[in-house]
Design brief:
173 residues; mainly beta; 6-stranded mixed beta barrel; 11 strands; 13% helix
């Protein structure tokens, strides 16, 4: 935990947690110590005539979507490299986020996370000196893992046929 007597011990969070941002409670967030920065699902992003950045949190397909437009004159841009190596340019804003009873001003990049299970990703810079991560703790349980026994039996019985049946699609892409 902390080494100095006057420091409060850091709160422990799991690899996912429920957070509150901009009046929206219980948003599922993935804690990713491999990610440098934090990102939040935003939609309807635009620059208004007064040069303010306007956006809504989440998207219409998300059950917590409110449609409330947020607007700020304080924003910047940031290059972000995804886990697959692609670089994109994103707007970055500061929003208050409540995690485990603690409110922290968080720098978020805005992105479309509609294909992600978690609408928020919390990165290292947000976690540093605020939380310890215990990956055995979770707020949102994951679906059961696949049982691959049948696939491995099929592979062992005839590797060539298995390849033709399941893996040959990768050659055509």
């Amino acid at each position: 935990m902390s080494t100095q007597k006057d420091e409060k011990p850091l709160k422990i969070i799991g690899n996912n947690v429920l957070v509150s941002v901009a009046g929206i409670d219980k948003i599922p967030a993935k804690v990713d110590t491999g990610a440098d920065s934090s990102t939040i699902w935003a939609s309807q992003i635009r620059i208004k005539d007064d040069n303010k950045l306007e956006f809504t949190l989440l998207g219409k397909s998300h059950p917590l979507y409110t449609g409330e437009k947020l607007s700020t004159a304080s924003y910047s841009v940031q290059r972000v490299r995804s886990s697959n190596g692609q670089v994109s340019i994103r707007y970055r804003v500061v929003l208050p986020m409540r995690v485990k009873g603690k409110t922290i001003r968080t720098k978020f990049t805005l992105s479309n996370r509609s294909r992600n299970r978690f609408p928020i990703l919390i990165g290292r810079k947000t976690l540093q000196n605020k939380f310890l991560v215990d990956v055995s703790k979770v707020a949102i349980s994951r679906p059961a893992t696949f049982d691959n026994t049948d696939l491995n039996a099929e592979l062992k019985a005839n590797p060539q046929e298995f390849y033709r049946k399941y893996m040959s699609y990768s050659r055509s892409k």
